[in-house]
């Protein structure tokens, strides 16, 4: 048994050139396979992480597209081109409760917003420090509506009603942080508790426990109790220089029902939008289906998933992963063929040796076993070489591929955008996490409602964490073993047909 | 030990048979010499009795068992040792390893195979130092002696040799014949030597000459 292994070792030791050639070829094959495997696994890992970081959110808001369409239609029918007033529906409490009862909901954030005027304090007006050169078109972050639609004057303070300030996008994105006191929770329902921005508080010498007065645009006054102060790191854009309510420092968080009360009696038990955070991104489609099945009026309301952002984020990764998989298969098949050819040529050269062994009564299987053992020894050496260099090659090829995929994807997005960015009219976009701008009082709820992280704004994954693991090395070893086995099997067809007399006579 | 019945062979299907149906018997403990002119079919005969090829007609029996039943690989592995005219050693091994490899392949019963091989090589004038060298570094004569020792070391009861002394000088040729005689007479093996050298043939117990497609026994010439 051991004899053919010993022969394999001696044969390789003496035929150094042949051994070196096989090692180089096998190493090259394994390096590419390993690169493919590591890229594939890194892509999968990155996709998983993206999935985790993105979370899974579905936003319920008014179906703006439908509303505009209907408004345009009625305008054409009536021929009253000058009349541009139309109602944007709020989401009624019954619909919110119906959808809240569905499965797979991790948390939900109910929002209602409006603008009011500061009464006992001064709103922060735009200064050079707060203004930026950022284009107003960056409204994708959420300053969709300004409340002008109702034909009433906008206030200077943005009142953001929430059932839980921790789930508000600014807090989720870490652009807002409670520095004193507490945030708004569901326990604040029915109260006039408020959380104000640190700069607004400092400017007006307001501390936790103080009361502040506000007035709605009908001059109705309300007294708020400050229960918390938060610090915003958001920068004001150019629009906020003209409209103070858009300045992030002028945003006050309160309970949703309080905002509804300020907006007027018709807004009782309503919301501008509801953000559902699901337990699993895979459940997004089924959640939308279930919501529709539960009787959601899709003419009035729309459900926007952030799946589009997620898909766009992982698209380059999917391409890289698919390419890496193809590399593995192609190299494995080509490698088997190349190795089989080399082994076949080697066997032809070693015909005489095979003849001698056969004349000594050596079994053909053991001769094949000797060649297999030789290839296994080569495989071990090649595995070491591939293990050392495979990660570098994988890193280089992987980053190049991802870069290329990101460039292609960016070019596609630019083309799409130049044709008109979808969703800007809808208010709630795919992301559904940006807090909307204040809405016009009495004129209807804010158009912006929930701004969106547009799909094109999705942060691309720019780096792959390519690391060689034991699992990949074992996988590579297994593939190498398979390739060696196939190569020897292909080559041994010749050995099985060899006749010792013919070999030795020739 | 070895019995040949109505054996014949031809190279191509329509070519003329190489022999008239051969009937021969070889006994254990005897050294046989087979003489014949070039092209008479001596080497083919050796291939057939060594199990390297199958006869076209007839059969060969080893201890009354047909080679067809034994199987040629098994026969070569267990029952016959072959010495080739062109040595046929494994080029990547030393003289010693060539012998040890053969002992391992044939599953020889010798306990200390290396020592046994060194002793046997020493008997044909190859010392341990030379024995450990790669066979490609040995002369033709030395390689021939290694090939002979390889066949002699194995446990097979039948040894067939094709022109074993072809590359040896007179002294070494005599030594080899002495070893073959010893194998036959002392170890009870059946040794069949194919040669064109009459001197070698005359040292054998039985001389057979292949002439006009048939074997005839030749009387030993007086010493």
Word description of this protein:
- The complex is a heterodimer of chains A (506) and B (223).
- Chain A is of the alpha+beta class and 506 residues long.
- Chain A has 2 domains: 2-50 and 313-413 and 462-505, no CATH class; 56-305, no CATH class.
- Chain A has helices spanning 2-14, 16-54, 64-78, 93-100, 169-172, 198-203, 238-242, 256-263, 284-293, 307-349, 351-359, 364-418, 470-497, 500-505; strands at 57-62, 91-92, 105-118, 157-162, 176-181, 193-197, 211-215, 221-232, 251-255, 270-271, 273-278, 301-305.
- In chain A, the strands form 2 sheets. In chain A, strands 3-4-9-6-8-7 form a 6-stranded mixed beta barrel.
- In chain A, a hairpin with a 5-residue loop joins strand 7 (211-215) and strand 8.
- The two termini of chain A are 29 Å apart.
- By secondary structure, chain B is of the alpha/beta class.
- Chain B has a single domain, classed as P-loop containing nucleotide triphosphate hydrolases (Rossmann fold, 3-Layer(aba) Sandwich).
- Helix content of chain B is 37%, strand content 23%.
- Chain B contains 9 helices and 10 strands.
- Chain B has helices at 42-49, 67-70, 72-78, 95-105, 113-123, 128-131, 140-153, 170-187, 198-202; strands spanning 2-8, 22-26, 31-36, 57-62, 65-66, 80-83, 158-162, 190-194, 206-211, 214-218.
- In chain B, the strands form 2 sheets. In chain B, strands 6-7-8-3-9-10 form a 6-stranded mixed β-sheet, sandwiched between helices. Chain B has a 4-stranded antiparallel β-sheet with strand order 2-1-4-5.
- In chain B, a hairpin with a 2-residue loop joins strand 9 and strand 10.
- In chain B, helix 4 packs across helix 5 and helix 5 packs across helix 7.
- The radius of gyration of chain B is 17 Å and the shape is globular.
- In chain B, 47% of the residues are buried.
- The model of chain B has no long low-confidence stretch (mean pLDDT 89).
- Classes of the chains: A alpha+beta (506), B alpha/beta (223).
- The interface between A and B is medium-sized, with 26 and 27 residues.
- Chain B: GO terms for molecular function: ATP binding; ATP hydrolysis activity.
- Chain B: This is ABC transporter.
- Chain B: It holds the Pfam family ABC_tran.
- Chain B: Belongs to the ABC transporter superfamily.
- Chain B: Keywords: ATP-binding, Nucleotide-binding, Transport.
